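SAMPLE LOG
Freezer: B-3
Tube label: C17
Construct: single chain, 189 aa
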Amino acid sequence: MSTENALKQRSNSSCELCTSTAQLSVVEVPPTSDGSAQQCIYLCQNCLDQIEGKSALDLNHWRCLNDSMWNSEPAVQVMSYRMLHKLSSESWAQDALDMIYLEDDVKTWAEQGIAAERSNGPTRDSNGAELQNGDNVTLIKDLKVKGANFTAKQGTMVRGISLTDNPEHIEGKVNGTRIVLVSAYLKKA
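STRUCTURE (predicted):
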């Protein structure tokens, strides 16, 4: 049986993350995959585009991870864990990460992909534009700044940002305070 047929049967011909039945394809789960059904998942184009950074993350779409993280297939667990990790600035995603249980070998597989993505990927804003040190960005939503007792308002300009080791975060000054910001909530100015 081909990998695609095995995945169709396993998933009931639906996306293994969000259960959509439109535009499905086989996706290998990196960093290493032998192309077998055990190391691949069946995804819709919407999930795939967001995972690959071709479209901005739709936070409400990813609430589906609250269900998919309990899937019995290790490859689905790995991708769910990685996406929850990517969205960990959202309280619901952090709660899910606190609840998820992965076998040791599955967790190692999941974390290898996160480490590989950090070392390879550029920092991108909410629209997918690559950010560089010194760029100016604008906040696209109000952000409560923990430990500083203020809320950074939508539309606030952050000038002369600094990149961090994590491509999902940047550093910048807001209201005179140097803070770490999630790049998914920023738009390049």
